[in-house]
Amino acid sequence: MFIRSFKAPALPHETQLPFQVLLTGHWKTESHSLKDRTLDEWVILFCVKGKGQLQLAGRRHSVHPGQLFVCPPGEPHGYSSGKEGWTIHWVHAHGEGLSSIAQQLGLNLKTPLMKILNPEALEKRFHQIHRCFSRPVLNLGWEASSRFYDLLLFLLQSYQQPSDQEDLLGCFRPEDTRLEDIVKRSGFSRFHFCRRFKSSHGLTPWEHLTELKVEEAKRRLLQETAPIKVIALELGFPNPDYFSRVFKKSTGRSPSQYRGNLRIF
After folding, report:
1. One domain, residues 96 and 227
2. Cβ–Cβ < 8 Å for 67, 155
C-alpha cells in the first residue's frame, strides 16, 4: 500500500484565488473504500490503474483505468476500488469557475466520468500539483492554483480537440437499439460522445446507426434466406413496415425488391 496525501495550509481570509487546492494525493492501494459523504468542495479523481466503483447522488458507476470523475459540492458520494485495488490521483478544490468547466466537459450527476485520451499527460499534471506541497514553495497557494488551472486547461483542450486515437465508429453495433449502450462502450458522457461524433463524422449517432443497419440488412438480404420480418426484428426495428420505409428511403427500393423477390414477408 502506497499513500501520499497533502493538505493545503489555511490562507489569509482576504486572499482570493481563482482556484484553491485544499487537498491532493496519490494512492496505490489493494483495498480502498470510502463510504457516503457530502462535502462543500469539488472532488476530482483520476484512475490510473485498476478498477473501482463510484456512487454519486444515488447512482452507481464503474470506473476504469484512464477515466476521471468529478463530484460536485453538496452531493453525497462514495467510491471504492475493485478486488485487485487501484492507483488513483485526487484533488479537492474550491473555485467559482469549476461548475462552468464541468458543464463544458459534459460532466454532471448522471454522467460524471470522462475518458482521458492521453492519461500520461494528465498524470504528469497531478504530480505537478503534488510536488507543490511536498517541497517548500513560496506563495504555495498561488503555485497550486496555477498548477490546477493547467490541469483544467488540459482537460478542456482534450475535450475540444478530437484525437486520431479514438475510434467512435467502433462503438456501434447494427443490432443496437439504445444510444446508452453505444455511449457506454466509448467511455464518454452522452453529451461528449454525441458532440464529438457529429464533429468528426457530420452525422448524429442515430443517423450513422441507421446507415449501419441498412448496410447490414443489404448484406443479409443477399446472403441469407431468413424472412425479411426476422431480419428487421434482429436489427432492432420495431416492425417490418417501419424497416421497409427506412430501407426504401435509403436505397430507393423495398427490401423485397432489393432481394429480387426471392423472399417475401
Report:
1. no
2. no
Q: How many domains does the chain have?
A: 2
pLDDT digits (tens, 9 = 90+) for 5-26: 777 666 555 567 788 899 999 9
DSSP 12: P
Query: Is residue 53 within 8 Å of 61, Cβ to Cβ?
Result: yes
| Domain end marker among 145, 160, 175 | 160
| Residues 6 or more apart whose Cβ sits within 8 Å of residue 72 | 42, 99, 102, 109
Q: What does the DSSP assignment read for 232-263?
A: HHHTT-SSHHHHHHHHHHHHSS-HHHHHTSSS
Query: Strands (DSSP E) along the chain, which ranges?
Result: 2-7, 20-29, 33-37, 42-56, 59-63, 67-71, 77-94, 113-115
CA atoms within 13 A on the CB side of 206: 7
Domain span holding position 25: 2-160
The torsion angles phi and psi of 92, rounded to 5 degrees, stand at -105, 135
The model's pTM? 0.61
Same domain for 246 and 154?
no
Which one of 113, 141, 160 terminates a domain? 160
CATH number at 48 reads: 2.60.120.280
User: Residue 147: which residues within 8 A CB-CB, separation 6 or more?
Assistant: 21, 125, 128, 129, 132
99 and 111 within one domain? yes
Query: Residue 170: which CATH number?
Result: 1.10.10.60
Q: Which three cell numbers stand for residue 26?
A: 496519490
Backbone angles phi, psi at 3, to 5 degrees: -135, 125
pLDDT in tens, 167-190: 788 889 998 999 999 988 887 778
- Domain check: are 102 and 215 in the same one? no
Collapsed DSSP state (helix, strand, coil) of residue 87: strand
